[in-house]
Structure formats: C-alpha cells, structure tokens
Amino acid sequence: MRCVLEEAQEEPDVKLMIERSMEEEDEHKEEDGGGADEVEKNGGGCDTLGEDSDDHMGGWDENGDPCLPFIGSWHRPVIVCTAGANCTEEKAEEIISSVEERNSKLLGEWCDMVDKNIAHLPAFPLPVLPEITRFCFSKYECYHQRYWTDTTSETSPNHPYFKPCEMMRVFSLRLSSPIAHPVNIYGTFSIRDGWEPLRNYLFKRSRNDPATISKVEVAYLKEKMVTVTFRSLNSLVVQYCLVDVDLWIKEEGDGSADKLLFCGYVELDAFLDGFGSKLLGGFQGNCHVLDMHYAFLPKGIETVIEVLAEAEHQSNVKFSASTNGFDDEISLYDGTFCGSGSMFKHYVAVNTQEDLHIFLKMDDLQYNWTFKAGVGVVVAPEHPVPGFPQYFVMNVSFRTRGKAASGWQWSCICSDVSTKPYM
Predict the structure, then answer these.
(1) I want to staple 285 with a disulfide (CB 3.0 to 4.6 A). Which of 19, 184, 262, 385 is the partner?
(2) How confident is the model at residue 40, as a pLDDT?
C-alpha cells in the first residue's frame, strides 16, 4: 500500500529540495526523541533498529504515539450489498454453482499434473469468487461489503506511518503462454486490504492508452508494482486481501470486439499461504493465464524509492530493486529519460534488518546502491553517473514509526557526490 505523506501542493525547485539545513535536521531529531549524542553514535541522524522495535503490541509505537487510524474507524460506504439486492436467490445459486464447478475443475487439472510429476508445473489456479454469494442474501457480511467493491477510489497516500507489520509484495504480472503477435492490454489490476479496502493499483490503463505486449515467450505486463500492507491492530492481524481484476485485450473498432483477459475477484489468505516464500498464482481467463509472482513479508516496512535527475540528452535507463530474501528483481523504471524533475517514485516492502538493493543499467554499464533501515547507505557509487551532469539524486525513505524510521539520500550535484540522512 502506498505510504507517502505529500509534502506540499506546490512543487518546489528540485535543486532547492535537495539541500536541508542542519537546524531543520536538529529540530526533527528532537521531535523524534533522539539527541545529538545518540545521532553521532549511530552515524546517520536516525535511530537504529532495536531488536524489540516492532514487538510492541497494541495501537501505540515505541515513542508512545498512536498508530492511527485504527481498523474499524472508517465509515463503511456500503451497508447493504447491492449485488444481493439486484439478483434473485435462484439466479444466485446458478452463478455460485457455475463458479464452484469451474474452480473445482481447474484445481483438479492442476492436481493431476502434480501427481504426474510434470516438470514445468503451471501457476496454482487461484479460486475466483462468484459475482454473488449466499452471504449477499443473509445478515452476514459478504465480501462486497467487507472490501467496498462498489467503491473504485484509490487508497489515499496521506495515512500515517505504521510500525513493521505483515505486508504483501508483488514482483510481477505476466502472461504465462506465448502470444502470436503484439497485443494491447487495458483495464485495472488492483488489490484491496482489510485496513482501508480501497484500490491499490498495480496496473491501470485506459482503452485509449493501452500497454503493448510484444511477441515474446513470456510476456510481462509492466506497470508500477506496489506494496499492499496488512495493518496490525492489538494482537490481531488483517490476514486477507482481495485481488480486483478487470483486464481486456484491445481489438480494432469501437470496443465491441475486445477480448476479456480476466475479470473477477480473488481473496488471498496470508496465513494460509505463509510468510517469507515466493508464491505463484494464476488467473485463468478464456484466452490466457495471467500469472502473479508475490510473497508475504512477516515484518515489512513500507519503503519509497524516488529518483530526481536532469539529463540534457535522451538516455535509455533501467532501474530495478531487490532484497536479501528474494532473487527476483522488481522493475522500478524501464524507458527513456530526458529533461529534469522526478524520474519515478516507487513503493516496495522491505523486511526489517534486510538490505534494499537498487540497480541502474545504462549504456551497458551498471551502478549499484544498497540501503538499510536505521543504518543508511551501505553501498553506493563513488563517482557521478554519466549522462546527468547537473544533478542526480536518489532518496530512499523507510516509512514507519519509532526506532525503525529512517530516510537516506545519495546525491550527485555538479559532480559533487554525497550521502546524508533524508527527511
């Protein structure tokens, strides 16, 4: 889930944003309860991660500040399930039976392949929820009400910091079968969690601006990969999330001939899937299977990666990130860049005590950075990155409360390379 506080309505000059006065830093540290001696001891102006930094139970962080808003403080926008109100019980039973039969068939085919020791086992078929359930007619809460499916708003970036907690990381979305020719895909792929069940978009394209998938053996659906967070409340953990998908393949014409890639809801159970291992789930459509590589992190910190730069000439730039626990790289940016300003701002989840590795590939050269919450910039280039003569700034913010909070900046301003804490 996005976890960034917007600094201001107006965008300041990027070069002015880079510098920060020592007075502001000292003031910020005093507010966080860290004195000068402790800052000097830790070598970076931010508290180091304590062993018990995320073991505090309840809705309060290490500094005694409330981790608000609590679950249940939201005013539910949907009181009555509209799906249940607009469908007869007989029709609903027909829909439910059809979906259950399809899910059972796909699972049975997958289990048969397991029994036959198929070498390249396809993704586990994720069971799709029916458009309407029996709960939609009863007094029990159905998934439409629980996840606010009638609300298409996106999660606000203005919620507060949280202590390390259970999170979901999505590595990639891809079509598992080869395609005969390039296709244009549009629609939405989002995830709703139980803390604030609004859409967290992984993919969002209109029909007028589709994503073109080239003819490749395995076609990746490239868009921003965000982190979905499961918030803690006292000793309870929000263990479920809802995958909300509506994707189409664009055909020539007015849209009537467009093919449905996948449309439906899938609920994931973090406790059932387990934490710390990479998972692979498939969304079975009529013409393709959409694979999702993902994992649940036991003690994740929402982390923001932002690059500000200026380039006089167009350059092919590719940024990716990874952590200690997984070999897969998360694509941050892959394209051309020219001009000045923010190249990208990306959201990932990092387990406490893990290193965050960031890679830049440009003109057959590779540059590496390593950041760690509470520690700082562990590895970084000692020289400027060619192609950005005026400035190149990388900000990494580990956004949480208390001792785990820290932000770090690696910058190159007019060939002057420096590393320092970032607000």
Answers:
(1) 262
(2) 33
